[in-house]
């Protein structure tokens, strides 16, 4: 197998070409080139945009045992660069690809290099392409690096709650009627309605992480009218991110929020337009499959269980609606900047660690 330095260099190449969601052309082409050198049974390119799926058939058609197991890495960057570690996740999966290509295994292997995770669209696009269904996936695994945890620690959910939270962006447009700034009473200005909505949304929060009904509403952006000092505003947009631990609770939060907006808008004579953006399901592993995975990994790695879900979201949950699977974290250092922080940088020395986790899973899964 190639020296680990080879894969650190790949990670650095990806880091220097941070393709944002939906524009991952550099990552796509680099991944395809690396995979072609490893001669998988099949390669699917441009899956769901710039996704890549590679398949190694390792068991014979008449074998009575053996599974087809998928492993996924996200490949997109943020507008501020690769500040979430997807470049590192891609390097981990490419390192693992070389292991798959050069070892006899009792299970078939599918590697999914997924675009558009940051917008919550990529997993669904991969699923809708039908490639995973065609290949007959029995289980799927994914990981995410976790600053704040000791390097090499495997972090799993506690089986009573998801690994990562459900969330969704929402835009409420309030349409009134502009008028001259000297006679605001002749128009319908949405300013007071927006202020009331923001205040009442704050009261919907339940921020106790030990409460399964946890709910968080974050104000993202607010615009009222235009920069025209002779005109009283006639329209507004206010944007929030809704966040809960469970999918059902997110639906309930939207119900309560929508009711507030509709009531306030009606009282002020405003028309409401609503747009949901970047929805994420909660990411909840299959308990018995996670337990088996822990058995494979615990002789080699420290396993730590989370007390409550991470508040960030991860679109790996979309796969788990139709395929059994496990999503886990990989500690990248206790003193590292948090994910999405401008100073964040993936720690190259956990590339080998992540690949080893996948190796142990594919060697033992049955």
Describe, in plain words, how this protein is organized in 3D.
By secondary structure, this protein is of the alpha/beta class. Helix 1 (about 5-15) packs antiparallel against helix 3 and helix 6 packs antiparallel against helix 7 (about 245-270). The mean pLDDT is about 95. The protein has helices at about 5-15, 25-35, 85-100, 120-130, 130-135, 190-205, 245-270, 285-295, 350-365; strands at about 40-45, 50-55, 70-75, 110-115, 140-145, 155, 165-175, 180, 215-225, 230, 235-245, 270-280, 305, 325-330. The chain folds into two domains: about 5-165 and about 280-365, Zn peptidases (Aminopeptidase); about 165-280, Alpha-Beta Plaits (2-Layer Sandwich).
State the gist of this model.
The protein is α/β, with parallel strands linked by helices and 366 residues long. The protein is built from 9 helices and 14 strands. It is elongated, with a radius of gyration of 23 Å.
Total DSSP E strands? 14
What is the share of helical residues? 25-40%
Poorly predicted tracts of residues: none
- Helical stretch count? 9
CATH architecture title of the largest domain: 3-Layer(aba) Sandwich
Biggest sheet, spatial arrangement of strands? 1-2-4-3-5-14-6-13
Count of all domains: 2
Largest sheet: 8 strands, mixed
Strand content: 15-25%
Rg, Å, rounded? 23 Å
Fold-level CATH name of the largest domain: Aminopeptidase
Order of helices and strands: HHEEEHEHHEEEEHEEEHEHEEH
Helix/strand class: alpha/beta
- N-to-C terminal Cα separation, in Å? 26 Å
Shape type: elongated
Q: What do the pLDDT scores average to? A: 96
The CATH homologous superfamily of the largest domain is termed: Zn peptidases
The level-1 CATH class of the largest domain: Alpha Beta
